Amino acid sequence: MPSAPLLSVEDLVVEYQTPSGPVRAVDAVSFVLERGEVLGLVGESGSGKSTVAQALARILGPPAIITGGRVLFEGNDVLAMTEDELRRFRWRKMSFVLQSAMNALSPVLTIGDQIIDVLVTHERTTTRAARERAAHLLELVGIDPARLASHPHELSGGMRQRVGIALALALDPPLVIMDEPTTALDVVVQHEVLSKIAELKEKLGLSVLFITHDMSIVSQFATRIGVLYAGRLVEMAPTRELFRAPRHPYTKGLLGSFVSIHGPRRRLAGIPGSPPDLRRLPAGCAFRARCAEATDRCATEAPVLRVIAEDHPTACHLVSP
Amino acid sequence: MRYLLRQLGLYVLAAWASLTLNFIVPRLAPGDPASAMFARYKGQLQPEALAALREAFGFTGGPLHEQYAAYLAHLFRGDLGVSVAYFPAKVTDVLAMGLGWTALLTGSSVVVAFALGSLLGVVAAWRRGSAFDATLPPLLVFLGAFPYFWLAMMLLYGFGFTLDALPLRHAYEDTLAPSLSFAFVASVAEHLLLPATSIVLASVGGWMLSMRSSMIGVLAEDYVTMAHAKGLSPLRIMFHYAARNALLPNVTGFGMALGFVLGGSLLTEIVFSYPGQGYLLVQAVRSQDYPLMQGIFLTITMAVLAANFLVDVLYVWLDPRTRGR
Q1: ipTM of this model?
Q2: Taking the domain B92-322, which CATH number applies?
Q3: What is residue B6's predicted lDDT score, i.e. its pLDDT?
Q4: Is B221 helix (H, G, I), strand (E, B) or coil?
Q5: Rounded Cα gap, residues A177 and B161, in angstroms
Q6: Cβ-defined contact of B320 to A104 (cutoff 8 Å)
Q7: Cβ–Cβ of B319/A92 closer than 8 Å?
Q8: CATH 1.10.3720.10 domain span(s) along chain B
Q9: How close does chain A come to B220, measured CA to CA in Å?
Q10: Where residue B34 falls among pLDDT bands split at 50, 70, 90?
Q11: Listing from the earlier edge strand, what are the strands of the sheet with A175-179?
């Protein structure tokens, strides 16, 4: 099926089992990621963005359970795979760069061990061939191959994150999911890692699902951006369109809350209040309490995602085509 | 390497301190062991013999620093004096009798309990909430809550006396002479089974619980999530990624337990009349056998220090973060 998109997510629902009943962390999220595309997924902490990412490869541990929806990868239903199929699928088709490579690498194993084991598991190569490939991968991200013998604590934060990227590229997967890949780094190192990602994306023609809370970072990369709020997708549009004409009040708030060194000077505006408690979501729109323009209708009726402009769905009662 | 050398220096210092304490404490106690022994022999001992004894014990009657010098000199020559209870056997020879049996009994029990408990803890954490996890830890903790000598007596009564399946006492069949023959080794193993089982049963639950809890912490780490995402096999994730990290905090506890191996499991040895250190210690205390007591305390202290150093070495091997410090 060459016409099938690389990744298609339909009405994904993830619930956390808690003593006080299930909590919906991801509520009917749908999106499509085409080959060669970089899709940004933006939201505050607790908006469900990492949960979405981990649900895609089914690596969510208990108490999180995927309770509904479909995840199609190159037309294959990931949620219907057996454990064996799933193990072969993971990393070969979809790899991860996690938030802080500090914790994403086991402290007691060498960098080399952790790259080589994924190669040996999936490709049945000899350890020697895998070692050569691992050395090549480190070179690709600009790290001395002699570092294969190093342990994670011997590397700087930026180097660790680049090792994480090298690891993600080990099997040449069509999709790399980057979950806050630069959050734990300082600004200079952040820039270094981001330009490495941009360079590799061009060179290898990767598709990327880029998850972040930082609008300024995602704008440099993403071809399209989806905005998550309280487990729901509230707006999605091509990056340029989203920055030019944000529709949802939450997106407007996000865009108003970071500094841009380009363009006219303006006053920084935050979003008042804090994210809602997922255990006690109010009726109607989840953003209502923080929204300056909320109406009576917002209190009773939950807005659904409607296509407002071309390729620009939004879930808000206040916007109309 | 520098780290290990520094640790070693620290242990040598600690060893010296404990040797000195070992010298001072008996001299603070009322009574004089040589006179006590003299009394035991009800005057049959010649005054010359008494003087010789005093000298052997280091109670030379000179000023304290001279006694101390004599004590240290004897120690370095491996001369711990003569045992009172087993007179005229040398303390080192008496210790050699018990040491091997205690090392065998307690050593094997501690190693088996640690290995088994850790393995069970790993599996319980991995299958958290399963039937395995819901039944085994409470059961083993329940067993561990009994005093270990009580478990020993129950096993002795059940398997040794009522079922008559296993020997009741001693370390080997007394009709056999110690040798490396199959019959002798089999007899030792048979005699080892009950006392070792009683110690393992009493301690395995603790090891399991601590491994389980550190494993549960590790399972929430990003590198374990990452290992899942890498499509590795569950066994590899469980042992190579999770258990290897979860083991680290428990190695310390293992070292402590190993250090106390030579202290023996005193009451277990008494219940099974096992001829180890614990049994000797009781004999020594009963007959005010100071040289033997000193010798036993000395071996215990040295064992604890050696085990601590072993843990340091193990840590350097297991945890790369301690290297190069």
Answers
A1: 0.84
A2: 1.10.3720.10
A3: 87
A4: coil
A5: 66
A6: no
A7: no
A8: 92-322
A9: 9
A10: low
A11: A94-97, A175-179, A207-212, A38-42, A224-229, A232-238, A312-314, A306-309
